[in-house]
Design a protein that fits this description.
By secondary structure, the chain is an alpha+beta fold. The chain has a single domain, classed as 2-Layer Sandwich (60s Ribosomal Protein L30, Chain: A), CATH 3.30.1330. The chain is 28% helix and 30% strand. It contains 2 helices and 5 strands, in the order E-E-H-E-H-E-E. Strands 1-2-5-3-4 form a 5-stranded mixed beta sheet. Helix 2 links the parallel strand 3 and strand 4. It is globular and about 35 Å long. The two termini are 14 Å apart. Belongs to the RutC family. This is YjgF-like protein. Pfam families: Ribonuc_L-PSP. GO terms for molecular function: deaminase activity.
Length: 104
């Protein structure tokens, strides 16, 4: 959703283009979420460098360090971030990432 100069991305789960869930570690699943974010940003005329707010949802905070090791490779510019533990995520995935970015 584009509103003025802002692009609001819905939470991205670790799924491929066909909607199949990605298997593997929390690192693999975090990378899949971020790759989905990257694809949407590009399609909307934005980029990862224009992301200024990120919310990460984890079903277990024990996964924070592993998730963060992947996260910080992509979000090196350190946008504002919240990380929230939740009881359950869609389709039973362990991680979901949503962002707000600038467009144009």
């Amino acid at each position: 959703m584009i509103a003025g100069p802002h692009l609001f991305l819905s939470g991205q789960i670790p799924a491929d283009k066909e909607g199949n869930l990605v298997e593997g570690s929390i690192a693999n699943k975090t990378e899949a979420c971020i790759k989905n974010v990257l694809a949407i940003l590009e399609e909307a005329g934005s980029s990862i460098e224009k992301v200024f707010k990120v919310t990460v949802f984890l079903d277990d905070m024990a996964n924070f360090a592993e998730m963060n090791s992947v996260y910080e490779k992509y979000f090196a510019h350190k946008p504002a971030r919240s990380c929230v533990a939740v009881k359950q995520l869609p389709k039973g995935v362990p991680v979901e990432i949503e962002t707000i970015a600038l467009v144009g």
